[in-house]
Amino acid sequence: MFYSFEPSKKKKILYFVFYVLYIIQMPFAMLFMIQHYKPLIRFLFRLKDTDFVFTPTGNIIFGLFGFFIWIPISGFILYLVFSLVFNMKSTFEYYDEKYKENYPHRGGRYNISFGTLKRDKIACVIIEIAAVILFLFSIFYNIRVTDQGIFHKKFFSFRTEKIEWNDINKLEFDLEIRNTKKETDLIPHFYIYYSDNKLDIWNGFGMGNPSPEEIINFTNSVRLNNQNVTVNTNFNLDGKTMKMLRKYENGEQDIQTVYNYLRNY
Fold it and tell me: Are 140 and 153 contacting, i.e. CB atoms less than 8 angstroms apart?
């Protein structure tokens, strides 16, 4: 194909910068969404400072599918910025035409295609629609604790379950030992037992996990609303366990703080 326009060396460098920025910002955008999931939930549900939000996996789902949504949005934003600031519109059109011309000749081990550019675009649209749906579901996939009780929703469920304070009979702190081929993982759990069910508000270390202060304040809140609730720790915090916890950031300190408090409850 004959190109009536070929960008200058400066525009080619700017186009390279555009793609570098486009790729670099992606993981930071996902981390940003994961970190700001709780504040967003607090804002959307008008929660007070004394209310609690626990996100065993909701923040991860929110960040993951928000990442898929952000891919085309961030590309469009950067496209507008570079087009307006650096007059890059014709440069983008040039590379877009080259991409369309070379598309049928792509190859490689990790090349995934449905046969034509049109089919691949349709597949991308379907993926984006699915990501939007899962992203919206994740906004409600959390555990909210207010003066009225505990509210939570199962994924893909339109019904929010409310746990009354009087329905709670036990709180249990547990440390699961999970052996894999490469290493041994320790996974903290904090279960709420109510009626014939249980709910976990602390499912492993990582971004979005509750702080020791949140677990302690939550325990006090439950006991304040229901004096009959029992509090158990379902493991012994020995020297070997403490040593294994050191591989997690603040893992040893966080577990010991909650453990010591609950043991003396």
Answer: yes
